[in-house]
Structures are given as structure tokens and as C-alpha cells.
Amino acid sequence: MLITRVITAVVLLAILALLVSLSDPLYFTLFISLASATLAYEWLRMTLPGKAKEPVAAIIGMVMFVMFVLIYWLFMSGDQDNIVTMLHEPLALNASPWATAIFATFIMLQFFISFIWIFLIPMIIYMGNTHISAESVMHSIWAIFAVSSAWFAILATYLFLGAWFLLSFLIIIWAADIFAYFGGRFFGGAKLAPAVSPGKTRSGAISGMVAVTIWMLVSAYMEGTFAALILRDMGLAGVVGVGLVMAVVSIAGDLYESLIKRRAQVKDSSRLLPGHGGVWDRLDSVIAVSPLAMSFVFLFFLQ
To answer: Residue 150 in contact with residue 225, Cβ under 8 Å?
Structure first.
């Protein structure tokens, strides 16, 4: 199983590396739009109420894919200088009115979604309630907003700040995930959330947080990274603090998906990715952390 996971991860990383190396960002956009729409489908097929949840989830996923591509086209068909200006002044009047409205909406969405991931989702996880049904209108609405917010955060980071900046905060998520897995297996000990995910341990969570802290401190002195931006405006204490918050949110994203799957009585969100399950299984932490990272970017970018 571990070998299968590694092979799948390597293939996905190779595809991602190829896409970000291409001069035309359309291919990367199509890839993350398809991945986001598929993730939304996997999520909604568990949480949508009613007997027709499968086709309805598929339709919503397809609509989201089309909307993502249209939003990208709207941004890229306009004046790029004006779009970049909106990173400084989200309500800039000299930009396209439609692009300005959509961009400003997504910016505000990042903060709203981040607030929920930091404060509300941990409460839901703590309460557990694994015995109730996964079907929920609120969790389904949350799926659409959470996935859309993460899609925008990743795309905006790539388009306006570059592949290296994007990679620098994705490594935060991967470090938390990988070291939590191996740290938990090595140290063992008390369970982190036994009702939600019996396999996860507190020692694993601590291992992941330590790994994230080390990466944040190291990458803070690398030009063009997420941590370097935090260092410039918040100092070393801010680098450590932001890294720890992002590590906790990464764990929350993982545990939240585990909670929904346990309520739905399924092991994986799908069988699309060998060794990993579904797209949501692979990107559960990315969905949670990306809006938070983009929120920090909007707070500090070129102040």
C-alpha cells in the first residue's frame, strides 16, 4: 500500500511540475479546476440529502468546473496590470468591473473560509457525532464555498506570485502530512481524535507541527517564498506562529474529511487515485490551508 501511495504521489507531482513549467497557465488552470470539481463531487455525493445525490453532485461538479474556467478567462482576457493592481487595491476602479467584483468577492471569501476552518471546524471535529448521517444541506453548501475558495487561492498564487511561492506553502501541507504519518507510526501513543480517526496520534500531530516549523524557518530565508513574506512583516515569531496555525488547520482539514467519511460509512472519498483513495483524500489539507495562506498574502502583500 505504501509503495502504491508513493508511486501515485510521484506521478501527480510529475504532472504538476510539467504543468507549472509550461508558459501558458491555461493547462495548470484546467488541471486544478478539474481536480477541484472532482473533489466537490466526491464531497457532495456524501453530504447531499436525497436519493439523487450522485447525479446532483456530478452536475454541481461540472457546473463548478465551467465556472472556474470562465472566471479564469475573465481575468486573463482583461488588462493584466489592472488585475495585479487588485492584489494591492481589491476595489480598484480602473480594473474591469466584473473582474473587480469577482476578485473582491473571492478575497473576502478567503477570510471567511479561513475563520471557519480555524474556529468552527475544530469544534465540529471535537464534538465528533460520528453516529449521525453525513447528509446535510449546510455541509453541502460549505463544500461548494470551501472548494471554490481553495481553487481561487491556488490559482491566484500561481498566476500572480509564481510557482515557487505556491510550492513553498504546499510544502507546509506535505510536511505536516508526511511527518504526522511517520511520526505517529514511530512514536505511537495517545490518539488525537479516536472517534473520528482512530489511526491518528498526538505524537504524529506534534511531529507534523515540528516539521512545518522547521520548513518555515528554513524557507523564510529563501527569496520569493511564503515564509519570507511572513518574516518581512511579522519577524521570526510570526513565521513560527503562522506555521503552527497552518499546521493545525492542515490537521483539521484531514480530520474533517475523516468525520464526513465516517458519517457516510465509507473508507475513501472515491477510488480514483491508487493508494490514496479519492481527490479529497489527497487534497483534504490543501483545501483547508490554501485560503488561510492566501489570507496572509492579502494582509501583507507589498505593504
So the answer is: no
